[in-house]
């Protein structure tokens, strides 16, 4: 049986193309894609090392894992294809596999595939924490801004009898050390599953291109931009609990399965795995936006709503008033714009090359 | 640029899993899949002729073209995999490509992929009248009950100045010779496009397994079961036009892009193409149902509704009262149950083997 990572829970980005949809709230990720474009280009030209004469049917295979609904995934793929063409100066047939959870809105994704693409597009439903492809069948495997999603909230964090229990909070930011430790370990385990599968699927000399929303190794978790925002979202939820709109227990049970890694932690996972050479590690600091405080607060709020809406609905039920929550949250963002502005964030970007088998 | 058959219009089956959905109205197709199971088994054991030692990464690749939303496609794929395993008695990795129009409900399809499958599933959006895959990259290509869909209504049939103009009718059944000729030619052209693409995509020695809802070569079009039903649907529409509910012109402009082939016509297309050997042609007559007239009429009505709903909506607009149409249609089916019972239908099933290149 193919391990298709069924153990991994799915919280898809909001599909469709409405106001709160991921398509309309992914411009920050888009900046990241632009920032890594040149790095990817270089890596492909200098590091990719496959024997193109042995490619079955001259078919070059690329995947984007955690693709969501576009348009970013289409841009990422186009950048990769351009670099491959530049390097080999030859005509390949490209097969592109768009991967995300089964519950991702593939209908929206498929209907927005650029019409003049020069590849054969496929959708591949399933979790990247398990196997997705046959052995040694991909040449370049990309994942942008998806690996911060854990396969699950660490069990201890939900366990009342554990010191890691995260009462009254929704993320590990200002939680105790035990909670943070549980998150850190979960991220490590998830990376191990991810890298084990990818090591089997990518050809020797093929590349993994990974970008994470993360932090510098010296930045404490509590100073990470998104963590500050999540903490405020948590206090909005607690406020609703105190008003009796939702139960406090429900808030205790709610935790965001997201972790912001440092480059060092990913490097350690790569070393544990042993099948890849680390060709490049780059941290790209968040460009601080120059827009007004009010624009900023609104942007953070819609960005987080696009990512969290399905998670919140699943937990608090369909009747839960998301508009009310996000109004309160927006207010909190306004009030806390200063600490938020001091928040930091970095994109952690790695280029890994699959070692020759047996080395 | 990849020719992705954009010229082909899409009228997907009704998605989801509601009362009128394709999932709940495809039991007739299911019977056909069961009927051809043994034939497919034999063909794979006796005719499939690929060098399994040269399979890249021991990966065996199968596609089902025009898969709709399941469950039939999952059964068809499972039958094929079982036969391949029986033949080679060896462990392959299977990659399965589910193809349908971009507008197919892939979300429903993906969410119902059997959890204990032993293959890597992919969704492949695009028209099978154009290229879908890189050269020589598939081993078995299946299509069940999809190739009756033309890429378009033949142009002449919509042209008031043409002798093929199909005034007051929605299919070619009781239309003039010119209309029938236009449909026959369109089917021939579409088969040419289909076979040209497949000849490039399937490996030498690989198989095409094709089942069409069709007719025996000696059965006149007007005696084909579905054609009789379509003609009744047409008269229901005309009745609504006479009552002023829709315009007569709209009905004139509406034509069902479906054609029921004979084995002979498909064989001719295969010969024109020249890249395949015909290994087997079988006609499987429709089993006449033993249920009561009233059950029969209802079954025909919901079956046709599942297939035609999106086509009708597109043409007559979202406000069009489908319930009213199908009530009237059901009435007509009751009144005409005798001619309907004399109607004939056959599944035309072909097994084609890709010739060695250059032979
Ligand atoms: N285990 C998993 N397997 C596959 N996709 C996953 C996943 N965990 C999270 N994701 C997906 O990762 C996506 C993150 S959003 C990022 C989208 C895109 N790569 C961009 O750069 O804009 C979401 O669509 C989410 O469903
Ligand atoms: N040109 C084309 N390309 C791809 N799919 C097509 C097509 N024309 C029709 N179809 C699809 O063919 C399907 C026919 S319904 C048959 C479904 C399934 N094979 C079964 O046996 O039950 C529909 O889903 C329709 O969207």
UniProtKB/TrEMBL annotation, chains A, B:
GO-annotated biological processes: methylation
Keyword annotations: Magnesium, Metal-binding, Methyltransferase, Transferase
Record-linked Pfam families: Methyltransf_7 (PF03492)
Gene Ontology MF terms in the entry: metal ion binding; S-adenosylmethionine-dependent methyltransferase activity
Name of protein: Uncharacterized protein
């Amino acid at each position: 049986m193919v391990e298709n990572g069924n153990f991994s829970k799915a919280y898809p980005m909001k599909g469709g193309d409405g106001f709160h949809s991921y398509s309309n709230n992914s411009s920050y990720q888009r900046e990241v894609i632009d920032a890594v474009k040149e790095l990817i280009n270089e890596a492909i030209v200098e590091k990719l090392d496959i024997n193109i004469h042995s490619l079955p049917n001259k078919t070059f295979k690329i995947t984007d894992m955690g693709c969501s609904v576009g348009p970013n995934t289409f841009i990422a793929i186009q950048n990769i294809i351009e670099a491959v063409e530049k390097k080999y100066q030859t005509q390949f047939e490209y097969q592109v596999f768009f991967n995300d959870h089964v519950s991702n809105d593939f209908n929206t994704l498929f209907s927005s595939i650029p019409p003049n693409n020069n590849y054969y597009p496929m959708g591949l439903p399933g979790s990247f924490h398990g196997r997705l492809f046959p052995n040694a069948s991909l040449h370049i495997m990309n994942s942008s801004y998806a690996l911060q999603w854990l396969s699950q909230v660490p069990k201890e964090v939900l366990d009342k009898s554990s010191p890691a229990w995260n009462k009254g909070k929704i993320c590990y930011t200002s939680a105790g050390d035990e909670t943070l430790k549980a998150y850190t370990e979960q991220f490590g385990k998830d990376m191990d599953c991810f890298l084990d599968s990818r090591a089997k699927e990518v050809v020797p000399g093929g590349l993994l291109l990974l970008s994470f929303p993360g932090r510098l190794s010296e930045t404490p978790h509590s100073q990470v931009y998104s963590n500050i925002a999540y903490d405020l979202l948590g206090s909005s939820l607690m406020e609703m609990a105190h008003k009796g709109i939702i139960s406090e227990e429900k808030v205790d049970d709610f935790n965001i399965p997201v972790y912001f890694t440092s480059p060092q932690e990913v490097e350690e996972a790569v070393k544990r795995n042993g099948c890849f050479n680390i060709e490049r590690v780059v941290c790209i600091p968040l460009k601080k936006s120059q827009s007004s405080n009010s624009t900023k607060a609104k942007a953070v709020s819609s960005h987080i709503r696009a990512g969290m809406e399905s998670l919140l609905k699943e937990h608090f039920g369909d009747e839960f008033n998301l508009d009310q929550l996000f109004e309160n949250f927006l207010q909190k963002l306004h009030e806390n714009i200063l600490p938020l502005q001091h928040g930091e964030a970095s994109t952690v970007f790695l280029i890994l090359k699959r070692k020759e088998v047996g080395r």
